Amino acid sequence: MIKLTHLSGEVFLLNADLIQYVEARPDTFITLTNGQRIVVAESMDEVLRRAVAYQQAKYLIPPPQRQGVPSGPGDSPS
After folding, report:
1. 41-53 burial by CB neighbour count: b if 16+ within 10 A, else e?
2. How many CB atoms are located within 10 Å of the residue 38 CB?
3. Is the pTM of this model over 0.85?
4. 26 preceded by cis ω (within 30°)?
5. What is the Rg, in whole angstroms, of the alpha carbon atoms belonging to the chain?
6. What are the C-alpha distances in Å from 54 to residues 18, 30, 61?
7. Separation in Å, CA 4 to CA 13, 17, 33, 45, 73
8. Which residues pair with 32 in a beta bridge?
9. d(Cα 22, Cα 47) in Å, to the nearest integer?
10. Which ranges of 1-78 does DSSP label H, i.e. alpha helix?
11. Per-residue model confidence as pLDDT tens digits over 2-22
């Protein structure tokens, strides 16, 4: 999820996986995979930065481990 701002100033969270494309015209329009369009206060470059950071974090941060439970194949319990 990325935090964005409606033009009205209301902050909301958007599932960045649903972004199909982003346009600057001059407001920033985000089109989602379901066809819904959202206008946000952030620039196109800022939306891109946040979406990329979200994708990087999604794949680089390991999931939390429960004590005594292996986290994957070949792992031994703590």
Report:
1. ebebeebeebbee
2. 17
3. no
4. yes
5. 17
6. 12, 16, 11
7. 6, 14, 17, 13, 38
8. 19
9. 8
10. 44-60
11. 999 999 999 999 999 999 999
